[in-house]
Structures are given as structure tokens and as C-alpha cells.
Design goal:
About 40% of the residues are buried. The longest helix has 21 residues. By secondary structure, this protein is an alpha/beta fold. Strand 1 and strand 2 form a beta hairpin. The strands form two sheets. Strands 3, 4, 5, 6, 7, 8 and 9 form a seven-stranded mixed β-sheet that branches. It has a two-stranded antiparallel sheet with strand order 1-2. It has eight helices and nine strands. It is about 25% helix and about 15% strand.
């Protein structure tokens, strides 16, 4: 699955030109493949003119980082991803959890840590308020965890009206082992986006040299950031967190590129 030499970015292809991803200190600052952010500000900062004649207010674009995390691995990536989103001017990341499906008694028996109540639980209807979406979840036999699948199953009304059509979206994952589904967990989730008409945004090899290093165990793939949890005690490595931050920046730039007011027709029911 894309492990051959054909996946190495061509050195002849010129960069598309976004300096944010080439900032000093970034793990891939010398070789990342950026995207163009030229002339995007005018289409992304919606202004609301105040009637009394004062300066207009600026509304930032918002990328919702919606995740399920049982033991904290996905949450660690989500927090770092928000840092990446927030690092792009005119865009902010917003963290949300999906509802838990297991009972408190079962969670206690599984020794699941208490969740940070500063991160709110999202409802399906709130998804329409996002300009971009990043979904994070652990694997269950190569597919998303039940909690995230149950959340997607609750979006039927949005699907019926195609309210999410055209919204950029991506994935980040957690697996227990190197062969546990870093790629399959993401690509089996693409069906959810397809039925909603959302635009799947993988990161490709835009992380540059960081995608090719073999000197340490690293989660993540062209499909999105990832972490290896092992038996649950392994913490995300710095390179895994850096990839998550990169994905946040990358999605924020994509959202800016696609932010065109009234670019889609009004939603309508398909049934």
C-alpha cells in the first residue's frame, strides 16, 4: 500500500508555497511539501459590520477536532493538532468528544481514566457549524471504534439534507501494534465522508522527511496522523505529536483555500 519508491515526492516538482509549514524548528522544515496560501485571507475572514460605524469584527474559520479517546492516546494527538490549527492565521481549532457508549461500571472495570470535562461532548447537529472536520479514533479490528461509529450513525438527518456536503474532513488514529491498522482504520472510515459528500483530505507526504525516517517506531501514514499505543502504557512520541500538529496546520490551510461564502447551493432533502 504505497510503500514503494513511487511514493517519494519528486524533487522536480516545485513547492506550492506556504511558509507556515516551513517555519524554523519544524521537524520537516527543510523538506515538507506545503500548499499555497496565496490570497486566501480575503476569502476566509468574514466580517460583520457594526451598525454604529466602529471597526468590523473578524470571525475566524473553525476546524472541529472531534475524537474518541479511551486511554488518552488520541486525546494527546488532538491537543497537539489544535495547536497546529491555531497556528494558522484566521483559523481556530475546537476540541470535542463524541458520546461514550459504555456504562460507568464497564469503564471502571477497564480502568479507563476519568475524562477531562473541559472538552465538551458534541451533538451531530453541531457539525454543521464547522468549516473543517478532523475525526480521531482508536482502531477496532481495522475499523473505527464503536463510539465513533455510533456518532456517525446519529448523523442521519444531516445526511438526508446533505448539510455536510463540501466540508473538508480528515482522520487520525491509534492502534496497538505496527500491523494493527494505521492505514486501514482511516481508509475504512472514508465511506462515512462519501455518503455525506464531505471532501476527504489526507496529508499525503507533506510532512516531508519525517514521513520517511526509520530510526524509531512512528505511527501515522499518508492517510493522517497516528500513534502506537502498545499495551496502553506507551505515550505518543514527539515525532507522532509533530505529525499531528502538521496535520492541524495542513487542514487549516485547506479550509482557508476552500472558504468561499455561498459556494454551495442551499441544502435540500434527498428523500
Amino acid at each position: 500500500m504505497g510503500k514503494g519508491g513511487g511514493c517519494v515526492p519528486s524533487k522536480k516538482k516545485p513547492p506550492l508555497g506556504e511558509s507556515d509549514l516551513d517555519a524554523p524548528g519544524h521537524p520537516a522544515s527543510n523538506s515538507s511539501i506545503p500548499i499555497d496560501d496565496q490570497n486566501q485571507t480575503r476569502s476566509t475572514e468574514s466580517t460583520a459590520q457594526i451598525q454604529d460605524g466602529s471597526l468590523p469584527t473578524i470571525k475566524k474559520l473553525r476546524v472541529f477536532i472531534v475524537f474518541y479517546s479511551m486511554y488518552g492516546h488520541i486525546e494527546g494527538l488532538a491537543n497537539r493538532m489544535k495547536k497546529g490549527v491555531d497556528g494558522i492565521e484566521g483559523v481556530e481549532g475546537v476540541l470535542y468528544r463524541v458520546p461514550e457508549t459504555l456504562s460507568p461500571e464497564v469503564l471502571e472495570q477497564m480502568k479507563v481514566p476519568v475524562k477531562d470535562d473541559r472538552i465538551p461532548v458534541i451533538t451531530a447537529e453541531e457539525l454543521v457549524e464547522a468549516d473543517g472536520l478532523l475525526f480521531g479514533f482508536p482502531t477496532r479490528y481495522g475499523c473505527m471504534a464503536t463510539q465513533m461509529k455510533a456518532f456517525f450513525d446519529s448523523t442521519g438527518k444531516l445526511w438526508k439534507e446533505q448539510r455536510l456536503a463540501g466540508v473538508p474532513a480528515g482522520f487520525f488514529v491509534s492502534t496497538g501494534t505496527q500491523g494493527g491498522g494505521q492505514e486501514t482504520t482511516a481508509w475504512t472510515a472514508i465511506t462515512q465522508l462519501a455518503h455525506h459528500g464531505m471532501l476527504y483530505v489526507p496529508i499525503g507526504y507533506t510532512f516531508g522527511a519525517g514521513m520517511f525516517k526509520m530510526d524509531s517506531i512512528r505511527g501515522g501514514s499518508p492517510y493522517g496522523a497516528g500513534v502506537f499505543s502498545g499495551d496502553g502504557t506507551r505515550e505518543p512520541s514527539e515525532i507522532e505529536l509533530a505529525l499531528a500538529e502538521h496535520q492541524g496546520k495542513y487542514m487549516a490551510l485547506i479550509v482557508k483555500r476552500f472558504a468561499q461564502p455561498n459556494s454551495f447551493p442551499p441544502p435540500h432533502s434527498i428523500i
